[in-house]
Design brief:
alpha+beta; Maf protein; 2 domains; 6-stranded mixed β-sheet; 8 helices
Length: 299
């Protein structure tokens, strides 16, 4: 899947490309981006996506992203002004540390909002946050932005020290990307229920069959999820009550040796959903799994 990221920030484009398996994301080069005057991350992200849709003619998928760091002792600043707080990197970090120099309160959080506009004009969004605190001095060489001074909750190292592998699972942008994938999966459920969809390529079919027979966890899920891309009706139980649900399977081939299997279970007329993202080898072996959405109900 190819998409334009409505930003000149190549760091974000590469990070989102890792976070959205199977996607090819290119930053949209433009010198006339509209000013970020929104009072929320969503407003700014949506404004960028709408600009990108107009610039590309509406025939391609576009993404708008806005993110920032909110520091409790500064009343939530820099917040949506993070990108304009100071030049990115060392100057912004120096200003932040200077403002906090005589303050004991160091709690902070990262926030990210992603808006996706599809070729048919429909909009989907994903939000993510990461709680933490501001370190006394920069540490580490990884990441970008405020990563050298942001220590996530439950960690002793900064994000810059934890590195890209940690970020790809835990960062605010990773959480927003997974939320967006869950929203996309829910949209696929709606299309499938309406009878839309295409054929199944042989490679995807073979990889899925290997996945659903490889281990006990996949075999258990395979008892209710389809073994080819598509949707099946199923029943879940919430607070002792049987509910009609839908179970959808999707697959994206990331590399010749790897794939991502997405399983989405939706109930309450599609308003509630739980999604599993299985990162697997082409032989079906699970390397890692990420879950997003509401807690899965009893079966």
């Amino acid at each position: 899947m190819r998409a334009w990221l409505c930003s000149r920030n190549a760091h974000k484009a590469r990070e989102l490309e890792r976070l959205l398996p199977g996607w090819k994301i290119e930053p949209l080069a433009a010198d006339d981006y509209p000013p970020e005057t929104g009072h929320t991350y969503y407003a700014n992200a949506r404004g960028k996506a709408l600009f990108g849709r107009e610039r590309t003619g509406g025939g391609e998928l576009v993404l708008g992203e806005d993110s920032g760091i909110e520091v409790a002792a500064l009343g939530g600043r820099p917040g949506v002004e993070s990108a304009r707080y100071a030049p990115e990197g060392a100057p912004a970090i120096a200003r932040l540390l200077a403002e906090l120099e005589r303050l004991d309160e160091r709690d902070a959080r990262y926030v990210c909002e992603i808006v996706c506009i599809r070729t048919d004009g429909t909009e989907l969004r994903g939000s993510g946050t990461l709680e933490g605190r501001i370190a006394g001095a920069p540490r580490g060489s990884g990441g970008f932005g405020y990563d050298p001074v942001f220590v996530p909750e439950g960690e002793e190292l900064t994000v810059a020290e934890l590195g890209d592998e940690w970020k790809d699972v835990n960062s605010h942008r990773a959480r927003a990307a997974r939320a967006l994938l869950a929203a996309l999966a829910s949209a696929v459920l709606v299309l499938a229920a309406a009878g839309c969809g295409g054929g199944v390529d042989p490679t995807s079919k073979h990889v899925l069959q290997s996945f659903f027979t490889h281990g006990p966890r996949a075999r258990a899920l395979g008892r209710r999820f389809p073994h080819v891309p598509g949707t099946l009706k199923c029943v879940v139980h919430e607070k002792g009550k049987a509910l009609q649900a839908t179970c959808a399977t999707e697959i994206s081939l990331v590399k010749p040796s790897r794939a991502v299997v997405t399983l989405t279970e939706a109930w309450n007329h599609g308003s509630t959903a739980h999604t599993w993202f299985f990162f697997i080898t082409r032989s079906g072996e699970i390397e890692s799994v990420v879950q997003e959405g509401s807690a899965p109900p009893a079966k």
